[in-house]
Amino acid sequence: MALLERAQWYDIARSTEWTPRYVTQDELFPPELSGGEGLPDEVWSTYDEPYKVSYREYVDIQRQKDAGAYSVKAALERADLYNKADPGWISILKEHYAAVAVVEYGASFQESRFVRWSKAPGMRNMATFGMLDEIRHGQIQLYFPHEYVSKDRQFEWSHAAMFTDNWVTLGARHFFDDVMMTRDAVSTSIFANFAFETGFTNLQFIGLSGDAAKAGDFTFSKLIQSIQSDEARHAQLGTPLLQMMIENGQREKAQKMIDISFWRSYRLFTVLSGIPMDYYVPLDVREASFKEFMEEWIVTQFMRSLEDLGLSKPWYWDIFLRDISEHHHGQQLGTYSWRPTLWWNPAAGVSPPERDWLEEKYPGWNDTFGKVWDVLIDNFANDRIDRTVPGTLPVICNVSQLPIVGTPSQTLRDISLVHEGRRYHFASEVDKWIFEDDPERYRHHKNLIDRFLGGDIQPADLGGVLEYMGLGVVGPGGDDAHGLAWVETYRKQLAKAG
Fold this sequence. Notes:
single chain, mainly alpha, two-stranded antiparallel sheet, 23 helices
């Protein structure tokens, strides 16, 4: 019997629906889990996913992707990348795998909630493939770093990081819980699929893929290319929902969702992508800066997606454009200074040639962030290592859960408010606006400083804090990626100057 072409049966199969007889529509799709209040019932059948695939086609494509990634890994296993690659690049691998692998597995639960709770048959169908995607991403990104564990215990964080209370983990987990796990299906898809995946996973997967190939790490490059092709597909889940909301008089609600999720995603990626791109990637293979990548992939391409939908730029656009030139530089200073609290060895990235590159990409860097590095370098060059690690804890933003930073002597300030007797601190007016929009969502969370001051961490000293965060338990904490070899140039300059 001749088989039908997919186009001849797909629309019939995807729109197969049933009429509940023993429960009401709201019992089958509880509004607090399904979302989409105010959208007429007949609208859900119009959800038209832009990417269509059958299960047979999906399995065949995924098998080919896995075969390609695993075969490249097998072919290059004797290349001894761990010992030959720049230590800064190895730190990128440690940061990426620990921050992403288990989160990908968590994303499969996000997709499974669409499968169960979405009122749109087409979305339930597409999310089934998205769920399988995320399981594959979790598995492959746990398997690839496993070979390094016997060489370097910091790679154990690939599996363990998301189960600890490390301060970086607290920030990442707070974000992913907010956008993936605690909202209704419609809101989650707009927050996670449209804003996070369409807008920002390109930074991590396309940007790092190019950097990996230039750094000679073809295994990692092939791996994340394989993942990004899946992300590009299920990232499209949110676009038809936005169209449905806008066409049914909910444009303002859709715009607010974009504004919140865009800022929250951006701030996380300043640490996850911004620091590695501008400080860890070896200088001889570093091309585009984080700012340039943001301008190409976010300012231009993501904004075009918003315009196509009839949505506007977020209200804080001017703040965002200024922020992409400064925020990640402040986070680099903070994370490097607090290097014992990291699960990777941060690269300083401030040798004389690297400072020239930073000044070229960010005019004025030497007169602002460079001045702070001058103090650190002077202490390193004069063997005052103890003065290069802060003696106090940072102030942490109650929305992003990241340290509050800014351009020294220009934009560094704490923005706070008192809500029901408790003072909350924010890294920007945007973070404060997000909190004020829904204080019940954020007010109960305790960041690392809240836990320390509240007596949750014992003993209340540096050793107690490090153990609480898993440092020395899961694996050793961080130190300079290059063993401070880059300081020698400055030491010679000081000796020559007398």
